[in-house]
Each structure stands twice: as C-alpha cells, then as structure tokens.
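Support case: user asked for a sample of complex input and structure output to validate their parser. Sending the pair below.
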Amino acid sequence: MGMTDIIPLIVAKYNYWLFVVLMMIGLYAMIAKNNLIKKLVGMNIFQTAIILFYVSIGYKSGATLPIIQNVHEGHGHAAIHAADYINPLPHVLMLTAIVVSVATFGVAMALAVKIYQRYHTLEEDELRMRLSEK
Amino acid sequence: MPWQIDMIVLFFVILCAVAAITVKDLLSTAILFGAYSFMMCLLWAVMGAVDVAFTEASVGAGVSTVFFVAAVFRTSRRTKD
C-alpha cells in the first residue's frame, strides 16, 4: 500500500482518529495527573471518547434520523430501506453509558470531598505522605 | 455531515479537553469541562444522534458541572498540575 492510498484512508475515518486522540488524552490525565479531581476529568474524557466511537459506528453518510417518513401519506406500508436511516442501536446503548458515567462521576466527587475532609488535600503525593506517616 | 462544521467542532473538542486537564485552577477546569461536554453534544447532534445529544446536554454539561462546582467549593481550587 503506497502513501497515496493511506492518506485518503486517514482523512475518511477522521472521527476514529479523534476518538483515539481523546482516549489518549483521558488516559494520560488518569495516569499522570497528581490531583484527584483532574484524574476524574480524565476518566470522563475517556468515557465520552468511547461514546463517540459507538455513535460513529452507527453513522451512515446520506442517511437521516431513525424516524419513519411518509407514514401518513397513504403508503406507510411500503418497504422500509434500512440504508436510509442512521442505525439507532448504538445511540440507545450510549444513552445508558451517559447516565452511568454521570452516576460514577457523582460518587467519585463525593469520595473526593470525604478524602479532603479527612486529609485536607486532594494531591496524590501528599495523600501518600499522610498515609505513610501512620 | 457537513465537514466544515464537523472540523470546527472537533477542533474545539480537542482544545477544551487539553485545556481542562492543563489549567491550574479547578474552577476553570469545571467551566472548560462543561464547554467540552457541550461541544461533544454539538458533535452528536451533527452526527444525527439527537437523543444522545440532548441527554449529554442536560446530564453531561448540566448535572456534571453542578456536581463539579459543588465539589470544588467544598474542597479547594488549588492544584499543583
């Protein structure tokens, strides 16, 4: 495969490249950031990147929203072409994922508040120092 | 999907994500994270996933930001990185 074949492939699938970039930003924040809240932001970026991947799978160019058209004009019993509509199954799965992600975020924030009340810091290295003192 | 709108939104998504994990003030992180969620919601509306888009707008950009700001006010705005 020559260079001339690779470049259109990269350009055509740019949503998937964005998904990889966002996932790596989230992974970097989860691993390398010192503050617990920053780690949570990284986790949320990671989750939205995966949701973006699933929504990109369901997308078809030239298709419309998954609502059946022309039902009330007398020919509602005509054959429905699935190629005319965006696939709604990944959307429904990702609605659940969004709700789960906000629940995770809320619980994690509550835990961060409790950690701050007990140790008066949110930095990971200071927390390690406090824990090793005992 | 009109690719010009798509490119502008994708650019702002990356920008908001990088800015949200880089700034040194957690309240700024909260606001940038809300902007990131809203840009994601625009992206999904452009891609035809309107149900995902309005769930993200209400839950991701709304409720998450409220949680975030409440947590920052109960802890501290200071961060080392």
